[in-house]
Amino acid sequence: MRLVLGISAVALIGSVVAGEAQQIAPASSSIVGFTTASSSAGSTNYSAPGGIGSALTIGALASRATNISNLQVRVGIAPASAQSDVYTLYVGTPGSMTATSVTCTIAAATNTCSDTVDSAPIAAGQAWAVQVVTGATNATGQQNIGILMSP
Q1: Taking the model in full, what pTM does it have?
Q2: 107-126 confidence digits (pLDDT tens)
Q3: Position 34 in a domain
Q4: Which CATH number do you get for residue 61?
């Protein structure tokens, strides 16, 4: 299965920004796609449906157990020579999430990456976010991030 970013039908699983939570759960496999603002050069940010932040206080909540896989990322600005941007799925509770094996790296002079091999289980009530670590001299431009959530 190939995930195409920029689709018009998007399933929002739930989001929490600064402690406000909304939970919506898929009954079957769902593609979740969201767009965030640029991450600045040499920074670490966390993105989820509903926002982007510099700490693990942002995340989307799963109202039932699910698996996240098929991470797909497209950025508006490709990393400069000898630079890269790394995207990693984090799971847990807002403020206390840990990295999973779901990760991809956008190499210099490209603007996409994907991880179609790894997946991460998420328990009901857990949050998830995608960590973005940018290269020292490059901002990302608009970020389009997509995942597949399966029961």
Answers
A1: 0.80
A2: 999 999 999 999 999 998 89
A3: yes
A4: 2.60.120
The answer to whether residue 56 sits within a structural domain is yes
d(CA 120, CA 91): 8
User: What domain range includes position 137?
Assistant: 14-150
93 part of a folded domain: yes
What is the domain count for the chain?
1
Per mean pLDDT, which range of 8-17, 52-61, 67-76 is the poorest? Answer: 8-17
For residue 92, give the nearest of 48, 134, 132, 51 by alpha carbon. 48
pLDDT in tens, 125-135: 898 999 999 88
Which of helix, strand or coil describes residue 77? coil
Residue type, 33: G
- Four-residue CA torsion sign, 115, 95, 140, 149: positive
Evaluate whether residue 7 is within a structural domain: no
